[in-house]
Amino acid sequence: MIQAKASNAVLDTGHLLLKIDTLLRQPVSSPTWDEVLTYFIHNGLPARAAACFFDHYETKGWKTATIPPVINWQTAAKNWVINATEARAHARMSAPVSY
């Protein structure tokens, strides 16, 4: 009897994992250009960054590099800006010094 309960728990866990997997694969509503632009401006970020971000994810169908859909586009936007800022800083530090 204990073994039957344990196997039911495993089945329930498997069912839950299947549900989670299914939910993660469902399309997430993608933001409009106006939503992205408003978000960037509201956070003091340039419109050019908003355009690059929007175009990048729009062409990819709002999926990440590893194919899952973008679940929270605001978080993706924050990461986009952080990565772009770090890349610019690295480029400045790596630039050859002219004398």
TrEMBL record:
Specify the domain of life of the species encoding this protein.
Bacteria
Q: What protein name does the entry list?
A: Uncharacterized protein
